[in-house]
TrEMBL record, chain B:
Species lineage: Bacteria, Pseudomonadati, Pseudomonadota, Gammaproteobacteria, Oceanospirillales
EC number(s) stated in the UniProt entry for this protein: 2.7.7.65
Pfam families per the UniProt record, alphabetical: GGDEF (PF00990)
Cross-referenced Gene3D superfamilies: 3.30.70.270
SMART domains: GGDEF
Protein name: diguanylate cyclase
NCBIfam families: GGDEF
Keywords: Membrane, Transmembrane, Transmembrane helix
Chain segments annotated as transmembrane: 12-31, 43-61, 68-86, 108-125
GO MF annotations in UniProt: diguanylate cyclase activity
Protein species of origin: Halovibrio salipaludis
InterPro entries noted in UniProt: Diguanylate_Cyclase (IPR050469), GGDEF_dom (IPR000160), Nucleotide_cyclase (IPR029787), Rev_trsase/Diguanyl_cyclase (IPR043128)
GO-annotated biological processes: cell adhesion involved in single-species biofilm formation; negative regulation of bacterial-type flagellum-dependent cell motility
Amino acid sequence: MPRQPDTDVQPHHWRSPDERHLPAHFHPALLIELAQARDVPEHRLLRHTGLFTDDIVKGKVLISDHQYRRLLDNVQQHCQAEELALLWGRQMLPGHYGPLSTCLQHAPNLAEALTYLHDYRHDLCPLLFPQWWRDSQWCYLLWADGGTGRVRPFVARAMMAAVYGLARYRTGRTPEWHFLFSQRRPANPAAHEVSLGGRVWFGTGVDMMILPLNDLNEPWLDSSTTALSVARHQLPREPVPESLPEVVYHLLMARAEALPSLEETAGILGMSAASLKRRLRDCGTHFQSLCDEVRLHYSLYLSQVLRLGTEAIAERLCNGDRANFRRSFRRWTGMTPARYRQWLMP
Amino acid sequence: MIQTLKLHSLKWLCIALYLPFSLAAATLVGTPRGWRNIDWLDVFGEGGGALMVLAWTLLILGSRPAGTVSNLIFAGLGLIFVSLWQDNIDEFWIIPDAQLWDTWLENVPMPIGVVILTLGLIRWYQEQRILMAQLSKRERFRREHRSVDPVTRLASADYLEQQLDVELRAARRDQAPVSLLLLDVDGFDRINRRHGVAEGDRLLQALTDLLLLNLRDGDLMCRYGGDRFAIMLPHTNETMAVIMAGELTAAVSHFAYHTHYEGERVRLTASVGLALALSDSPRALMQRADHALADAKQKGAGSHASAA
């Protein structure tokens, strides 16, 4: 949720892309197994990742965001990448990740499962972090860039399929949600519709799922409160810092109505503008694209949750310059704000 | 490719033996021309030709099982190669005219090789026609290897869209509707989660074969995505399409699939959504079939529904 500029965040810690924090035998291992089952040769899969299957099997290897991105990039090169991402996503949660999986397995509803997903995003979705808004009817679950680089389409597809797959697994029915992808229309959009059950749009500028509020709060059966509370106590306590793009995203979102410049942002983070630029590049992103993402997300928040009209949004985002706002919006999404709302929003 | 090439190891041995043997024979009986007297344009033409023929042999044998057609093609290309290669050797050594074998090797294998190769190609053509008859329910009259799904070997949804376009045009002309069935395996996610993706893939392959057996000539089946199949029935009215939808769901529920390792019986049902059109766009037809499938799913596992 966008914080107001007065509640200042002081993010001085972030996770370096080379910090090894993600257990390789969690979902990376699942992806490796799936890719091997689909005849992707091992040497191609693990090329330049510094990983070896023999090590992963021992269950002690931690991998960095950098290695993880490399692995995903290798899979993305494969001809069946789209289907693999959906398949991987659908099986990813609750998974076999110790107490974390037990929590997801016994969460009383989707809302609580999402808080686990958010609080342990460094383990479950280190490159793309979730956040959600609610209005009176719908929940808007947005995925923002935590350093995906080239593999964003792959990760976005997998993560949305993961949340959907979890809901489908726990409810035993096929919920009908809306899925908005930022990537362009793929070769085989039908596969997405089949896997994600609902309505799917591409080239929308955001990676977002829109689901009825009822689905968020619908009680999930077969959950044991004892198992859940025991698992919650077993969850690791030491905090893992956010990735740098995520830190910058939150910092910008808190000032969405008057975005700071690259220099000002670097100053807040206590580094030079050149360092910030270089570090963001190491994470596969750059300052301007984070600014664009924040402004688009904020404008959608204003229009969907606060129900503001185009004029009021332009007032807040572009000092009342409607033409400028329209032009920016068109650049982010390829359509006008009114058309966007009419076509893509429920 | 390496696996396939292994099938032809004896043939490769022949070529591998011939090459040093021809060089040895040339050094024994011939006298070297010396570097300055070599006509490099000839070497490029004849030697390059020989190498290209060798490359064709490699590509063709690498993509084919053993059998008469492979043998004929190999023999034909092999003889052509021998002629060109022997011609090329002449550029490096002067071989006396008295050595008749050299003239023979240069001139005789070529025409024989061409005849044998032609015979091989004729046989290949016949073989291909038989294969096409087997594949017709998967690909009809067009082959695009890039849009073939590697798991089920069926064409994908974009190919279906092209073919629907063709058939819908025919439907308008002949006033006979095209029917489209979308068949979805119920609870396939659970099968994948319980038995693993490799087992899920095997099941999809088996199911593909089963469903193909239930189709008529001229029908086309594609993998729509995930565990959903699309079946196009040209010139088919609603009564017939409903009968076929019923037959397909019955075939799936009677299918006794057993898992690969445990031999466990997996109980399967499938739901089918049906739509037909005389003059609609392929996409609209697919969408209506999709809605019908959702209705069928609502009715319960193993049922079918028609689009309104």
